[in-house]
Amino acid sequence: MALFNSTRITEFNILGFPEVAERRILLFALFLTIYVITLSGNFLVITITKLDPSLQNPMYFFLGYLSMIDTCYISATVPQMLVILASHHRSISFGACIMQLYTVILVEGAECILLSIMAYDRYAAICRPLHYNIIMCRSRCYNMLFGAMLWSILHSALHTCLISHLPFCDNAINHYFCDIPPLLKLSCIDTFVNEIVLFAVSGVFIGLGPLVFILVSYVYIVITIFKVTSIAGRKKMFSTCAAHLIIVNIFYGTGSFTYVRPKTSYSSERDKLVSVIYNVATPLLNPIIYSFRNSEMRRSLTKGWRTLKVSMA
C-alpha cells in the first residue's frame, strides 16, 4: 500500500462520454454488441488455431496468442465502460485505476512486440523458406513469446510506478478508462519526466523499434516477392502478409497518435474517439481481417461449421 501514499486522491470518477449522455442507451447497446462479437471472434480464432491440425505452424501459433491478447485488451476497458453507460456508476478506487492502467499498458506493449514477431515469421517463411522450420522452431517461438511478455511487464511496471507516485489535484478523468494522457492532465506537478519516459520507452522501444523491425522485414519480403516470376506465386505471398499489414497500420497509426505526443496537445474528445479505434475496434477487426483475408482460416472455419452442422443433425 505504500505505493499509493503519495497522493491524497483515494478514488477517481471516470466521466466516460458526457457529451453524448442522451445517447447512452444506444452506446451501451453498440459497445455490448461489439464486445460480444469481439470475444466470440477471438475465442473462435484461439480454438481453431489450437485444434485444427492444418493450422499447427508458427504463423497461427502467434495468431492464437494475438487473439488472447486482444481478448484481455478489450476486457480491460469495455466492461467498465458498459457499467458507466448503464448505471452512471463512475467511481473507481485509486488501486483499481492503477491496476487497469497496468493491464492496458501491458497488453498494448505485448501486441506491439507480437506484431513485430509475426512480421519476422513472414520474413522467414518468404525469404528463407528452406530454413523456415529451423528458424521458427517451437522452442524459439516460445522464447520469443516469453521475451515479448517479459519486456511488456517491465514496460508497464515502469509507467505505472511513475504515475502512481504523482500527486493529483482533481479526480475527474475525462475518458472512459484510466489511461496515461488523462491521468497526466490531472497531476498537480510538472510531468516532464513522465512524458520523456513515455516518449523514450514507449515511443522508441515499444513503438518505433518494433515498427522499424516490421518495415525492414517487409522491405526484404517485397524484394523477394518481386523476384518471383509467377504472378500467382506473387499473389499468394502477398495474401499471407495482407492481413498482418492492415492490422499493423490500424494499431500503430492510432497508438502513436494516442501516446507519442506532448501533454499540451491532448484533447479529451478527440483522444477518446481515437482510443475507441485503438482499444475497441482493433480487437474486433483482428479476427475478422484474418478470417476473411486468409484462405486457410476460411477453409478451417468452413470445415468446422460443416462438422458442427453434421453433429447437430
What's the short version?
Helices cover 75% and strands 3% of the residues. It is mostly helical.
Which descriptors would you attach to this protein?
313 residues; mainly alpha; Rhopdopsin 7-helix transmembrane proteins; 3% strand; disordered N terminus
Describe the structure.
With 313 residues, the protein is mainly α. It has a single domain, classed as Rhodopsin 7-helix transmembrane proteins (Rhopdopsin 7-helix transmembrane proteins), CATH 1.20.1070.10. The chain contains 11 helices and 3 strands, in the order βαααβαααβααααα. It has a 3-stranded mixed beta sheet with strand order 2-1-3. The N terminus is likely disordered.
Question: What order do the helices and strands come in, and which of them pair?
Answer:
Elements: E1 11-14, H1 24-51, H2 58-75, H3 78-87, E2 91-93, H4 94-127, H5 132-135, H6 138-164, E3 172-173, H7 180-185, H8 192-226, H9 231-259, H10 268-293, H11 295-312
Parallel strand pairs: 1-3
Antiparallel strand pairs: 1-2
Helix pairs in contact: 1-2, 1-3, 1-10, 2-4, 2-10, 4-6, 4-8, 4-9, 6-8, 8-9, 9-10, 10-11
